[in-house]
Backbone:
C-alpha cells in the first residue's frame, strides 16, 4: 500500500508533464492567433488596391449582393402570392429601378438647370464677404507689408481650360451604363437563385449544427441590412418631404429638388448632411440680398438634421443598429477611397453585414490580445480544464 508521500511523488511528474503540454498548447494557439491577426492586417491594407483596380468587376458584384439582400424579401412576398420565381425576381428589380429613377429624375433635372448659375452664386457670395472687408482691412495691409518685406513679386496666373461638366458626363456615361447593366444582371440572377442557394447552405451540410448556424447567419445578415436600409429610407423620405416643404415655404427654387437631394444625401452618414448644409448655404447666400437672410435655409436644415439624427433615428432604429461613430467614419472613408461615392453609399450596409457575420462567427479581442489574453472569448482548445 502506497503512502501519501509516494503517491504525491508518483503523480508529480504527470502533473508537470500535463502543465508543460498545456503551456505549449497555449503558446501554439497564441502563435496561430498572431499569424491570423497579421494576415488580417495585410488583407485589410492590400484589399483597397485590389478592389480599386478591379472596380469594374468587384463594384457591380458587391452592389448586386447588397441589392439581393435588400430585394429578396420583396421577391419572397411576391412568390408567396403565387407569382413565379423568375417573374417575382424581375418585378422586385423593376420596383427598385422605378423608385431610383423617379428620385434621380426629381433631383437631376432641376440641378442641371441650376448648375449654370453656380458661378454667379459664387460671385454673389464674394460680394457679401467683400462687405466685411472694411473691418478687416488691417489684415490686407499687413499681408501687403509682409509681402513687401519678403520681396515677393507678382506673377502671371495661367489657367488651363478643362473639360466642361457635360463633356465629363459624356465620357463617363458608357462606363457607368455598363456597370449599371452588369449590376442589375448580377442582382437578378442572384435573386432568382436565392432559393437554391438557401437549400445548398442549409441542406448540404454534414452536421445539423452547421446547418442551423448557416441559417441563423443568413437570416441575421438579411434582416439587419434590409431592415436598416428600409427604415433609413423611410426616415430619409420624411426628411426630404420636410425639406421640400420648407424650401417651398421659404420661396426657394425647385423645392422638389432640394427635398430629393436631402433624402439622397442623408444616406451618407455625417458627410451627406454636411454637403447638404454647404449646398443650401451656397444657394441661400448666392440668391439673398443680405447674408443673414441667406443663412436661414442652412440653419433650418441643420436644426432639422440635429433633431433627426439625435432623436428620431436612434428611437426608430434602436440599439440593434447602434454602431460606433468612429467605425462608421472609418468604413465610410475606407470604401470611399476604393469606390468613390458608390463606395460611400455601400459602406454602412457592408459594415452591417460584416458585423452580423462577426457576431455569429466570433468577435476578436484585439485589444486584450495585445496584453496576453486569447484572441477569441471562447477558444477551440479550452486550456483551463485538463483531460
Residues:
Amino acid at each position: 500500500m502506497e503512502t501519501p508521500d509516494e503517491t504525491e511523488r508518483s503523480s508529480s511528474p504527470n502533473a508537470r508533464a500535463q502543465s508543460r503540454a498545456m503551456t505549449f498548447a497555449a503558446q501554439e494557439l497564441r502563435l496561430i492567433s498572431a499569424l491570423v491577426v497579421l494576415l488580417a492586417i495585410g488583407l485589410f491594407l492590400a484589399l483597397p488596391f485590389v478592389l480599386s483596380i478591379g472596380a469594374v468587376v468587384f463594384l457591380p458584384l458587391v452592389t448586386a449582393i447588397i441589392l439581393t439582400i435588400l430585394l429578396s424579401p420583396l421577391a419572397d412576398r411576391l412568390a408567396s402570392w403565387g407569382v413565379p420565381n423568375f417573374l417575382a425576381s424581375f418585378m422586385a428589380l423593376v420596383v427598385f429601378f422605378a423608385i431610383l429613377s423617379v428620385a434621380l429624375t426629381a433631383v437631376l433635372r432641376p440641378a442641371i438647370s441650376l448648375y449654370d448659375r453656380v458661378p454667379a452664386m459664387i460671385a454673389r457670395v464674394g460680394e457679401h464677404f467683400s462687405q466685411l472687408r472694411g473691418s478687416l482691412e488691417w489684415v490686407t495691409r499687413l499681408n501687403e507689408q509682409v509681402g513687401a518685406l519678403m520681396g515677393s513679386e507678382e506673377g502671371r496666373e495661367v489657367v488651363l481650360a478643362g473639360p466642361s461638366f457635360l463633356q465629363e458626363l459624356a465620357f463617363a456615361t458608357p462606363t457607368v451604363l455598363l456597370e449599371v447593366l452588369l449590376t442589375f444582371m448580377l442582382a437578378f440572377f442572384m435573386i432568382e437563385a436565392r432559393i437554391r442557394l438557401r437549400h445548398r447552405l442549409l441542406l448540404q451540410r454534414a452536421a445539423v449544427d452547421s446547418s442551423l448556424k448557416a441559417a441563423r447567419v443568413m437570416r441575421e445578415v438579411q434582416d439587419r441590412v434590409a431592415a436598416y436600409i428600409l427604415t433609413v429610407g423611410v426616415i430619409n423620405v420624411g426628411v426630404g418631404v420636410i425639406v421640400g416643404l420648407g424650401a417651398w415655404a421659404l420661396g426657394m427654387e425647385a423645392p422638389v429638388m432640394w427635398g430629393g437631394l436631402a433624402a439622397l444625401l442623408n444616406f451618407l452618414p455625417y458627410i451627406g448632411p454636411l454637403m447638404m448644409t454647404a449646398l443650401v448655404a451656397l444657394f441661400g447666400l448666392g440668391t439673398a440680398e443680405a447674408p443673414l437672410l441667406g443663412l436661414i435655409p442652412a440653419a433650418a436644415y441643420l436644426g432639422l438634421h440635429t433633431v433627426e439624427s439625435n432623436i428620431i433615428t436612434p428611437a426608430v432604429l434602436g440599439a440593434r443598429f447602434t454602431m460606433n461613430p468612429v467605425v462608421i467614419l472609418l468604413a465610410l472613408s475606407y470604401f470611399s477611397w476604393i469606390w468613390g461615392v458608390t463606395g460611400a453609399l455601400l459602406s454602412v450596409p457592408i459594415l452591417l453585414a460584416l458585423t452580423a457575420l462577426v457576431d455569429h462567427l466570433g468577435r476578436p479581442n484585439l485589444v486584450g490580445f495585445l496584453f496576453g489574453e486569447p484572441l477569441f472569448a471562447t477558444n477551440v482548445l479550452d486550456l483551463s480544464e485538463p483531460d
Summary: The chain has 14 helices and no strands.
